[in-house]
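MOLECULE: protein
FOLLOWS: sequence and fold
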Amino acid sequence: VRFPPLVVDEASLPDCLLPLAWTSPDEESKGRRLLMAIMHRDYPHYGVQFHPESICTSHGATLLKNFVGMALKGVGTQARRSCLGLESGNGSEAVVPGVCRPSEGRVERGEPCARIHRGIADGGLWINALALKSEERIDAEKMFLDCCFGGGGEQGSQDTFWLDSSNLDYSGARFSYMGRRGGKFWRRIEYVLGDQSELLGTMKIGDTEGGEEVLTFRKEDGITFWDCMDGMVQETSKRMSDQGAHFICGGDGELGTLPSGWSLKNDGGAAEGDPLPFDFQCGFVGYIGYEMKAQCGGSMKHEASHPDSFFFFADQVIAIDHDDGTIYFLELSEHKLDGPSSWMKGALASMTGDSLAGVDPGSGGLPCDKNLKESAEWSRIHEEYVGDIGSCKEYLLDGDSYEICLTNRLKIEGEFQNALDYYRLLRQRNPAPYSAFLDFTSRAPDQKTGLTICCSSPERFLKLTRAGVLEAKPIKGTIRRGRTKDEDAEALNTLRCSGKDRAENLMIVDLLRNDLGRVSELGSVHVPKLMDVESYATVHQMVSTVRGQKAQGVTPVDCIRCAFPAGSMTGAPKIRTMQIIDDLEMESRGVYSGTIGYISCRDGCFDMNVVIRTAIFSGTGTIVGAGGAITIQSNAESEFDEIVVKAEVLVSTPSSRGQP
């Protein structure tokens, strides 16, 4: 595998450099042999232009072994050990460059960790579970409207979340999670980056009573957002009981009249401490914005218009098992509950009352029916974006990057009346396995200055299971679905065979293998699916799967930090390419290109998406981000058309959009 667009002219080599290897002439090289390896005639110096570490390179391990063996040939044993960091006699472990190592004492330094469960002893928090079985397929939208929105009285949708596996035909879309402002342990955790030269950031922690603590972290403190999150996650896990879930059995009519078609699943059918079938068992749910890269290898170039990270600590969660037809009401408490809590009873009562689910959400379209390609609402209009693509190619030709994920923003002026109705339509038009609805409007004096996120992402950023398995599912390669069956099949085959899209996907897969390799057991990173094509309501996409086994001593937040932001939203190599993106885009990406998901309070399991196909609502207007990977093969007009395709599903009304 070779990535660079640069090709060494063999005729330009000085006499001291000897050509060693060439490609076979092919269509891509226009019948020429391309020089791939050279050596110095007098010294053990070798150079290769291909990538032996790539997943698609044959015999990559053998190539690397031979390369190192030749380079070290004739070098003394002591010098060789010094080169590899294996100095004898010092008794220290060799340090492997780039591998994530846990910081000593980081939990104690994370001051916010004590602000969530102050006074709770280790092992003092219980997960109480009430499980109901449905005779029919569960309507997640109805559950959210009835239990989190409709049951909210005047509060409405404020401080609500819905991690929505709305594409139930997708194998990874088994569970959905939802909740609202909760009980004693509920918190709202907001983080805003500082300039990074003197101020690292500011964290606000709010509770259900309206109280708020503000923590300021200066440069000399050395405590980043990631340290804060790591401390909070670890401290919360320590306070969780190791007895498993406590299942509540409703006796003596404690549950009242159950909704029609529902029955108590755990009435004698679940033993104390039985494991729940899903990973999110209360905990942190929210987003990390793209600019948080400033604290994990990137720079602070642009200031976001919304908080750089926003999480709820959810102590009351509704989990839906779409496969099993079971709904779980989970609640944290300092003791086992003898019966259903007042919150559980209230949620059950809302399920039997009048439902909002039957209310027509209306057209659900954003106030933008203009031709997107010519619309002035793009942050960078057509001519500017095409010009930036040209600049990307100059960076590629200079060897600064292999692939650059360039993005644009569609800005729509004016306040939008009902983001929840918009999301209800969006999940119908574009169901996706990693969708989300997040409403943070209660942080603001009025809803005009609030923040609501409607996301229909098909892409997983990173997941950590209870077994310690890490999984990323990068997407690179998108094509619009055909209007007829034949057209659709042709589009799918075009994507599957596209050399450009396969090259884009391969580069990100190799980048993700590197990211996961920093936090995984040596030799455990593998690619069970490479360049698979998945079909969604409006597009076909090329998706790969990368997995690894989390290494001992590495925390869940370490895993997120070492892979953030998602390589599919940056390009490769990541750090240099992010610098290029900062210079070209001239504004923050904000929530877009970041990640939305959960971190479980029991053991730190998490599942985070990549924030794409997303509309961000606030009092100043609506923002829709769209982008694509630029390589040396990119056609500027085709790349602009691609971002239009990606934005269309988010801004078009059903009547103007038509069917795929």
About this structure: The mean pLDDT is 82. DSSP finds 14 helices and 28 strands in the chain.
